[in-house]
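Appendix C: a fully annotated inverse folding record. The material below is reproduced so that readers can follow the format used throughout the book. The structure is listed first as tokens, followed by the designed sequence.
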């Protein structure tokens, strides 16, 4: 609605602006002036001008002239037979009396046909400005007429209008004073109003005669004046009586007066039309435009406007010429120009321009983005195809434009499902960014790939349009796949990792629960893998792990899962229904897989494995519990039965818990000094003489009483308490031996070494310091080592042993025969003797095997120069039998159980003690 009236509103606003500012006047004057040029006419010739021109001034002398000159002129004019004479020369001030008299005389003889100028003047009387009419001298006024010669100058400095006359103050009220032009024209109008001088009247057509010629009585000059009205006035520039008039001309006052008179004579007193006519004209134009605007093209409208414009001017010219009416057409023309501008603005398609800018911007962006940009029309036929789309799909622009979007999709994909289906679904896609979808795209070469696209839609000129930004996400998918793989798998063996096993185990448990099945979890540890790593390097260790993984993977079918849990630990999870045997059979089968050495490229590596087994639901409801319990079982296998398997039972956990309690108690025991050393005698079998004592630890528990070492030493040895306890044992035993030595008993004391003493710290230095501190003879200290001590870092053990022996301390191999490689140790380490384990001794009388072992051990020791002592002799018969086998020393309940030092001293060192007491 507003848009419809916009041009007209604009025009009205423009008119108001111009109208109020008054700037239209300039145009109005220009148009009127143009009419003067177009509608020119000659002067009537009834009025002649006698010019006070430069020639006259030159001939007569400097202005002002003597009034006798004017008197002579008047006489000459009378002679020439003129009708009236008007002087545009000031006669208001008296001059030389004789001259004034001469002029008065001339006036007298002219007999009332002369008119002299009067003019209004502003004068200041006191504080007030008053208008004063300057009249001719009284003596002249009585003999002649007076007429006003004032000329109105318009705002633009031009003279346009002229008054018929004016009411002026006379002695008795106001009298009407005619203007000189009206007087000359013989007008009898008595009205205080003005008219516009018709400058169409050509001033050059006015009859003009030089003053001096008239004065001299030049007959041709005088002839020109006959029967005419005459006006005398200055035309010489130096007299300064000049005025600006329209069309850029400058005219002398006298000519202006004459033109005014001519206007009256020729009935060309121009009158301006009323404002109402202008307003009516404007209204007419607006109505015409309102009516025609919607029906006319811009060109026709412009033509119409031009025609109206010309029409208006022609009408104005006609009014001017025929009716002496001046129509100010400036506002009408301004209105028409405003309409012309409005038409032009209407024609310029600003929206189109903006659209073009936007489109070229879109095009540039579309062509430069790396993603594919595809636009379609409402039928989903492709309309825009950028280089990114070419790169993704392989189609050139000319091949694909116009084809359906569906041709970019894999056969299975539904194009319609991707695009917003209904109007209701549109809002989401109309949002910036649109809706993002994933689909399978198909390239020109047929390759199917994962794509991601955001769909947007907008209302275009030809219906709904769609924009699709397509991205090839195959790389991203591959990367994501790879990251997921890395997160779920062990990179070395490519088996699943602990995390993945946990989640898969959970689902396996869920499935088993649903099917009333059970799940077996085996945690497999490679025995002594650290050894392989240390001895053969990590790269080799890696290849062993890979080979182990391959072997497990090859064995476990698709129903089970094989995982690598940590360094040397693997796990197998499998539903019971899939193993086709008992759990133990499965464990043994897995163990058996490693009977054959692993192929590790360069060499064949033999490894042993230990297994911890846990079965859901008995050994755990959740994957976490199952894993934890299988682990526990493995730990137990490793400590108790390396190389075999153990199925988790609740007792294992109980034991563990007991062990933890024990550890806490032991820590307290160390603090409270609850340990004691008992001593068991070692005797020479032949003589029965006590030659030594083995120090054996006891724990005097506040509630449990005396606790034997087997109940707590393994725990101590595998705990951080080991060091402290071992140090205490060694120190106490050495002090005791030294005490006995000081008491005169050269009793050799045997101390059991703890693994920690050999593995860390400097045992030899410690012993040296202790011997030094106690003063004990080194030969009275015997250190007992077991195979598990010798198992570790051979070089270190060897060095320690050498240094101990160098001190004079002897080293014996305890529990000989129970380990795996007892014999080889005899060769490898510098040992002084061995203690035959009590398990061979107990049944030596009845078991021929044991007798054979004991016998050969004794003879072997003798050959190697080692001392031999048999443990566990519980009766005289055994002692005698061993003696017969060549064993010279023994230890056992038969000779004495382990006992407190005081008891030991009392029972075995009594003689000496008496002696000692005596000595004391
Ligand atoms: P071991 O070093 O072989 O000590 C000999 C064990 O055999 C002692 O058991 C002793 O009481 C037992 N024994 C000796 N003769 C007989 C016999 O005729 N019949 C029977 N049935 N047993 C006999 P104990 O004192 O219970 O010590 C057990 C093990 O604890 C020791 O075996 C040793 O390995 C360890 N042990 C004891 N005290 C210490 C200690 O202070 N430090 C360390 N590291 N280990 C210790
Ligand atoms: Mg021992
Ligand atoms: Mg022993």
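Designed amino acids, in order:
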């Amino acid at each position: 609605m507003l848009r419809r009236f916009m041009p007209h509103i604009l025009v009205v606003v423009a008119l108001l602006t111009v109208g109020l500012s008054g700037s239209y006047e300039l145009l109005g004057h220009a148009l009127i002036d143009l009419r003067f040029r177009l509608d020119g006419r000659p002067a009537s010739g009834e009025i002649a001008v006698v010019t006070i021109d430069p020639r006259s001034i030159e001939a007569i002398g400097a202005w002002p002239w003597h009034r006798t000159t004017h008197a002579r002129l008047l006489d000459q004019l009378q002679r020439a037979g003129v009708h009236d004479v008007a002087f545009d020369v000031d006669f208001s001030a008296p001059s030389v009396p004789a001259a004034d008299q001469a002029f008065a005389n001339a006036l007298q003889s002219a007999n009332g046909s002369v008119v002299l100028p009067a003019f209004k003047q502003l004068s200041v009387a006191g504080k007030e400005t008053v208008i004063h009419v300057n009249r001719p001298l009284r003596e002249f006024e009585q003999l002649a007429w007076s007429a006003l010669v004032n000329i109105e100058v318009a705002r633009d400095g031009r003279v346009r209008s002229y008054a018929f006359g004016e009411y002026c103050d006379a002695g008795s009220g106001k009298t009407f004073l005619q203007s000189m032009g009206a007087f000359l024209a013989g007008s009898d109008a008595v009205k205080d109003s003005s008219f516009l001088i018709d400058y169409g009247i050509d001033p050059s057509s006015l009859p003009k005669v030089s003053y001096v010629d008239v004065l001299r009585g030049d007959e041709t000059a005088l002839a020109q004046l006959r029967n005419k009205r005459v006006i005398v006035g200055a035309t010489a520039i130096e007299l300064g009586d000049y005025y600006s008039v329209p069309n850029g001309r400058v005219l002398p006052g006298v000519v202006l007066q004459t033109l005014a008179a001519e206007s009256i004579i020729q009935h060309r007193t121009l009158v301006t039309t009323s404002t109402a006519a202008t307003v009516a004209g404007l209204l007419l134009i607006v109505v015409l435009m309102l009516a025609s605007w919607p029906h006319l093209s811009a060109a026709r409208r412009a033509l119409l406007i031009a025609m109206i414009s010309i029409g208006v001017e022609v009408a104005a010219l006609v009014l001017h010429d025929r009716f002496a009416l001046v129509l100010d057409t400036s506002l009408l023309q301004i209105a028409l120009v405003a309409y012309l501008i409005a038409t032009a603005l209407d024609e310029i398609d600003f929206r189109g321009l903006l659209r073009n800018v936007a489109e070229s911007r879109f095009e540039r962006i579309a062509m430069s983005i790396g993603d594919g940009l595809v636009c379609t029309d409402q039928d989903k036929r492709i309309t825009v195809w950028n280089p990114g789309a070419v790169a993704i799909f392989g189609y050139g622009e000319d091949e694909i434009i116009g084809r359906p979007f569906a041709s970019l999709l894999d056969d299975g994909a539904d194009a319609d499902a991707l695009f917003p289906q209904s109007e209701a679904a549109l809002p989401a896609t109309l949002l910036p960014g649109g809706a993002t979808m994933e689909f399978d795209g198909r390239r020109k070469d047929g390759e199917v790939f994962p794509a991601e696209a955001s769909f947007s839609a907008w209302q275009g000129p030809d219906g709904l349009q769609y924009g699709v930004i397509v991205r090839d996400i195959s790389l991203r998918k591959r990367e994501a796949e790879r990251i997921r793989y890395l997160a779920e798998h062990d990179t070395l063996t490519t088996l699943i990792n602990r995390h993945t096993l946990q989640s898969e185990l959970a689902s396996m448990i869920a499935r088993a629960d649903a099917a009333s099945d059970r799940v077996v979890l085996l945690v497999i540890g490679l025995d002594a893998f650290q050894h392989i790593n240390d001895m053969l390097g990590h790269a080799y260790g890696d290849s062993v792990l890979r080979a182990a993984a391959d072997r497990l993977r090859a064995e476990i079918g698709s129903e089970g899962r094989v995982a690598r849990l940590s360094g040397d630990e693997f796990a197998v999870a499998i539903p019971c229904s899939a193993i086709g045997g008992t759990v133990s059979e499965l464990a043994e089968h897995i163990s058996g897989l490693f009977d054959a050495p692993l192929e590790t490229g360069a060499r064949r590596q033999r490894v042993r494995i230990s297994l911890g087994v846990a079965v859901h639901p008995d050994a755990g409801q959740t994957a976490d519990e199952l894993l934890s319990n299988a682990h526990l079982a493995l730990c137990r296998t490793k400590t108790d039965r390396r190389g075999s398997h153990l199925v988790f039972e609740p007792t294992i956990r109980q034991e563990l818990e007991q062990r933890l309690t024990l550890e806490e108690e032991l820590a307290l025991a160390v603090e409270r000094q609850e340990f004691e050393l008992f001593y068991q005698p070692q005797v020479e079998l032949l003589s029965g003489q006590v030659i030594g004592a083995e120090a054996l630890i006891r724990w005097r528990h506040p509630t449990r009483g005396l606790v034997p070492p087997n109940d707590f030493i393994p725990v101590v040895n595998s705990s951080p308490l080991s060091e402290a306890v071992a140090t205490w044992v060694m120190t106490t035993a050495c002090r005791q031996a030294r005490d006995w030595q000081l008491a005169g008993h050269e009793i050799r004391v045997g101390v059991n070494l703890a693994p920690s003493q050999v593995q860390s710290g400097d045992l030899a230095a410690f012993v040296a310091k202790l011997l030094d501190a106690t003063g004990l003879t080194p030969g009275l200290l015997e250190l007992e080592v077991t195979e598990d001590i010798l198992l570790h870092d051979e070089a270190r053990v060897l060095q320690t042993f050498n240094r101990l022996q160098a001190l004079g301390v002897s080293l014996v191999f305890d529990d000989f025969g129970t380990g795996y490689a007892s014999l080889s140790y005899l060769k490898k380490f510098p040992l002084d003797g061995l203690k035959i384990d009590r398990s061979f001794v107990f049944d030596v009388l009845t078991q021929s095997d044991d007798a054979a072992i004991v016998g050969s051990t004794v003879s072997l020791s003798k050959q190697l120069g080692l001392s031999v002592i048999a443990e566990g002799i519980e009766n005289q018969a055994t002692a005698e039998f061993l003696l017969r086998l060549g064993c010279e020393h023994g230890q056992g309940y038969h000779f004495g159980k382990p006992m407190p030092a005081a008891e030991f001293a009392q029972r075995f060192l009594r003689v000496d003690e008496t002696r000692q007491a005596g000595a004391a």
